[in-house]
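Components:
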Amino acid sequence: MTTQPPGTIADIGTDPDAFEAFYRDHLETVRRFVARRVSDPHLAADLTADVFLAAIDAADGYRADRGSPAGWLLGVARHVVAGEVRRQVRQRRATSRIAGRRLLDPDSVTRIEERIDAERFARELYAALDRLPPRDRALMELVALDGLPVAEAAAVLGVKPGTARVRLHRSRRLVQSHLLPQEATS
Amino acid sequence: MTHRSTEQLDSFETRLLTALREEVAGRAPAAVRHRKRWSFAAAGALAVAAIGAAFVLQPAGAYAVDRQGDGDVVVTIRSLSDADGLERALRAEGVEAEVDYDPNPVPVDTEGTGGGTVDRAEPDDDGPSLSARSEDGRPVDPPADGEGCSLAVGIKRSDHSVTFRISAALVESDAVLHITTRGAPDALSSIQLGWEQGSGPC
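Structure:
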């Protein structure tokens, strides 16, 4: 999944070269993760910066036996996005160490907008996940939205794979009935 | 996933990489503790005293924690470094504290305070006043001296340090003291003290 030996993840918080390798390895994952969740390119830029900042802060807590670096990063990213939702409720922003939106230029905005447009169906699914209880939602996000294998998503969330499968089965039915309300009732 | 060392970065992503590399390079070995989220679980009022004026700190001896004869604990901060050390020193005197030295020079604001609302006092010649607000934003009476409710007040600054006194009542309570500063290690921009009154002695 990555070009980086897992042992070096702990170094990304202190070694700029290790961080750059990590950034290049996982930028695409973060780009798509963000585009599946927000529709504003400036907010997407902020969140991209915030996800990597959070990874830098959390790097020494990475444990290779609990999942891949990509899975770990998605777990970090989930917390960042969930935190952003809470912040928006309180209209809190502009306190990040690196404000991603200040690094944007028109070309970059266009590229992010294209990515956001390409992920519009995924965002519809993301919105539909609101109906799920938080623990089921986290699982569905990682598996259905971000394409993580069930076993790895279970590891990220600290549940057994069997438990994850049961929850996913239940969640899929709930979300489908929400996404396709017309068909469900016809 | 393919090898991405040659990943084409656009201008935003290149600038972001540069900024993040600088962030990593600038992280002190003592793990600068940014953006630590305050968790004011109690619904009661949150009392805060703050001062917001830039001045230069003295690098020698990052902090001092001194127990007074009356049970109060006096804290002197001379450098915004070694937050963990200050937490340990406070714990040794019976004060549970979360110390957050944020190098961002922007003054401490109300972010992340959960149930409580922070009210920041403007500095003046007499030092900052203590103010408190309830969860719904109503001003409430600040803890008064002599009523068993005197907590930590009187942030005072000298040329190269900042000092405040934690009352014996707060020391003996279960309240967690939050010390948050902004500014580089040798250039304090603002300092804010907060604690949950719900779990404190008031």
